Amino acid sequence: AELILRAEATTLRGNERRIALGDELINAAEGLMARVMTSPTDEARQQLQSGARLLLTEAHKLETSAEFRQRTALALAKLVLAQGDWSGLAEWAEAVQEGAEPGSLLALEAAVAASRAAFAKGQIIDARRGLMDIEGSLQRALKEARSDSELSAALYELQGHALFFLGTVWRQEGQLLFAIDAWDRLIKAQPGHSKADRAAVASAETYASLSRYDDAIAAWQRAEALARSASPAEPTGRLVFMEEIQALRQREERETRLDPAARQREAVFRRAQLQAMLGRHDDAIASFAEYVASYPGAEDWNAAQEGLVTAHFGRAAGRLNASRDASLTDLEAAEA
To answer: Is 235 left (phi over 0), alpha (psi -120 to 50) or beta?
Structure first.
């Protein structure tokens, strides 16, 4: 940041030039944050986040327009969130909301950030109420933005993230059917959203926890289909949703880091496991065989092989028992 500022210090003239410099700082920060997702260690991620935070802080200090300062404040809110500074996040979100036009994209993003901060601090009800209010505001904003394709796309992206997070909050409250409803609404409205297949995974796991196994299998099949058509998640330019909430990372770490192809593999394997557990041997054999044939060398390949053998054994045993039962019935009928 210092090098950029020194190089430009002598030529800074007027608000337009300051905004141009601010854009350079934001772009540099986004470049650092784009590398966070693929950094191999926590230390490397923290260094990248700290560097991006410094660049954005310098951009925010520039005497520019209110809109530009709102942009930098929002980006800083994301960084504060990624670093787990929930009080700092709430302060930034409040500052953006105060300066932004009500119902604008910036205001709505800041409201989502505030709900995430509330959730992370254990204020579950506040987070959920905030997200429910945001959902209505997003629907109104989308109606007003029909003629603006770029704004509509950004609002749809935000709406998908808000619905996914609302489901997470409902799940935390123990309201599992409400959680599934939020995830299903995301999938139906935006099957191409970056969170759609993850919403299907969350629904499948939640259905399984409710012992609704048929619904769980259907959800795993849907997750597989969505993952097959998904593209690897790319960081968004607005920086708001580039990482999962710190408080959810432990729960969702594995699923978040998988690319769509890996989530597809997991969906096939989990579906096969459920079918085997329910004694649906033919279905389990087909699913395990699909995994074994399609994903040699994958993480669960050996387990899938074992599952395939066990399912074949279970089917054979079932047929043998059925044959014995039929023979006993015939014998009893003949003796009668």
So the answer is: beta
Burial class (CB in 10 A: 0-12, 13-18, 19+), 317: exposed
Alpha-carbon distances of 211 from 148, 205, 218, 221, 233, rounded to whole Å? 45, 10, 13, 17, 31
Distance, in Å, from the CA atom of 122 to the CA atom of 249, rounded to the nearest integer, reads 15
Least confident among 6-15, 109-118, 127-136, 219-228: 6-15
Buried b (16+ CB within 10 A) or exposed e, 34-55: bebbeeeeeeebeebbebbbbb
Q: Would you call 191 helix, strand, or coil by DSSP?
A: coil
Report pLDDT for 259.
64
Give this prediction's pTM.
0.61
DSSP 118-142: HHHTT-HHHHHHHHHHHHHHHHHHH
**232-266 per-position pLDDT tens digit:** 444 333 333 333 333 333 444 444 445 667 777 88
Is the distance from CB of 308 to CB of 285 less than 8 angstroms? yes
Of 258, 252, 191, give the one whose Cα is nearest residue 222. 191
